[in-house]
User: What shape does this take?
Amino acid sequence: MQRRSFLGAVGSMGALGTAFAINPVLAIDPFERPTPGRLRLSLAAYSLRKYLAPAANESQHMDLFQFVDYCREQGLAGAELTSYYFPDDVDDDYLLRLKRHCHLLGVTITGGAIRNDFCTTDSEKLAADLEHTRLWVDRYQLLGAPTVRIFAGDVNSSENLSETLARCARNCEQACRHAEQRGVFLALENHGGVTAQSSGLLEIVRQVQSPAFGVNFDSGNFQSTADPYYELAQIAPYAVNAQIKVEMKLAGATVPTDLKRVFGILKEAGYSGWVSLEYEADEEPLDAIPRWLDQLRPLIGG
Assistant: This one.
């Protein structure tokens, strides 16, 4: 659907319910996808961060090969890897061995994640973050990952928000030029800062002109809004990766996520692809994760 037709259709439909709401002023056309979306279940390495990056006094340790083993043991077809947990001396040999290990176990690498700040006004930091992004795009491409999660950055109190968002969009677009050549999506996450609400995130999306750009839908990260489900419904049409948290913030309180509602938002938006459990709750992850996966499986297929 072209933008003009899309806006006309929205106008003729009247007010949309919060189950699937889009603000057409703030966003480019959503991806054209059939509904309902088809979802597949994965696990984010961040869920086991206490073992992948243990504190100095922790004796238990897990590497990414063992994390993939764990995903296999849980009956998962996918594993989302995070750059934080690769060894400092990672090289192509390590990546190829990890890729081979995943394939032999029947586990797909569903995506990757990096740290970056594309709102910064520090030219040296920006250059370093762009180079870091290019490096990990190349690494995740070698692994076969379709998406790389990126961040936007923080609000700059010394300038108008629109200026910060425009700078972030320019930097995202610059990073996307390399991702386009590698066939990898850069997925901008709703992760506080200038993306604390959907309006900020979608204003960036509107300005980035690249087929390699989309949104990383994180169900638990709209923490400063009265209706996080409404915010999630706004960004879902632009998602190229999705992460599910079992808790979210509502009116300042931590509450259980309405998982059925979140999965309904994704499916109604036509999102098809991997949904990674990103476990962040207080209970011991090795005890809690299997139970949460059992709750998620019916929602994936239902």
Remarks:
- The CA atoms of residues 237 and 269 lie 5 Å apart.
- The beta strands are 39-44, 78-80, 108-113, 147-150, 185-189, 213-218, 239-244, 247-250, 253-256, 273-277.
- The longest strand covers residues 39-44.
